[in-house]
Amino acid sequence: MAISVGVFDHMDSGGRAPHEIYEDRLKLIETYDTAGFYGYHVAEHHQTSLGIAPSPGVFLAAAAARTTRIKLGPLVYIVPTYPPLRLIEEICMLDHISKGRYQFGMGRGVSPFETAFHGVSHLEAAAMYKEAIEIVLKGLTSETLTYRGEYWRYTDVPMVMKPYQKPHPPLWYGVSRVESVQVPAENKVNIVVNAPRTVAKQINTAYMEAYRKKHGAEGNPFMGMVRHVFVADTDAEARKLAAGAYRKWKLSHVELWRRFGADNKLWPEELDEAIAKDASFVGSPETVLNFIKGAMEESGCNYMVGRFCFGDLDYATTKRSVDLFIKEVLPKLKG
Length: 335
What we know:
CATH class of the largest domain: Alpha Beta
Mean pLDDT: 96
Number of helices: 12
Shape: globular
Largest sheet: 10 strands, parallel
Strand content: 15-25%
Structural class: alpha/beta
Low-confidence stretches: none
Radius of gyration: 19 Å
């Protein structure tokens, strides 16, 4: 089975200046584009060093100007923090700037602290997300927008901006539970999972059952698996180079949670544990290739989404890892 490959980027600061990270990431995206990666997906986070691209659309516009083929999009917009009407216009702009390469992910936000900073109660975020999704999809496909909801209301708003792709750019959603697959499956929303391959298999099976029940044989949606990916000449060298950077990333991941006396247990504390628990693919080209092939086959995923740059990895170290992946791993996944 041919496996598509993409990139997921938290854009964590690693203690470096934002302007330096932006330029290094843009150079890496140029490399992904030239190599034939399918997509680049950037996370949205606020008031934390986990994400220094809090306005994904701004960074993606820059990425669109530096690339020609790779798909670009947020994974995900934290929808409850946006006025839906402004979000519709931003989606249309980015879809045209990229000439139809834009893909957008939408979610309610994983961190209650980040949404609270923006005046959104975590208790209301799910309801706001559901309402906002209805508004955005209606606005992207209508001549005028009229909507009466609990959180937003619009009356005969002219939809002057239209998306480049029809009826709208492809949709993406992060899924962590089997119970969450019904809505994305019924609406042809591509999914990604962070879960171990055994859990991912349950999610993918339920998702495809719901998808085929609704749409029959029409279409082949993406089912993505997100993992840290780092490649070096040997397993020992890869682990040595990636261990500290992984730890730095993990600390940024739980930064706000620990500040408020909570924690986020999604990812292990140390790289060795992450590798052992199927959360990171780190090693020689052969090791990483076997990790990916095994995970894709067992889970049923068809899209490998790698965190290729994380923590305080510098550009040169990351570029060498990515180049090894492109030379030694990518052709065997595509073939």
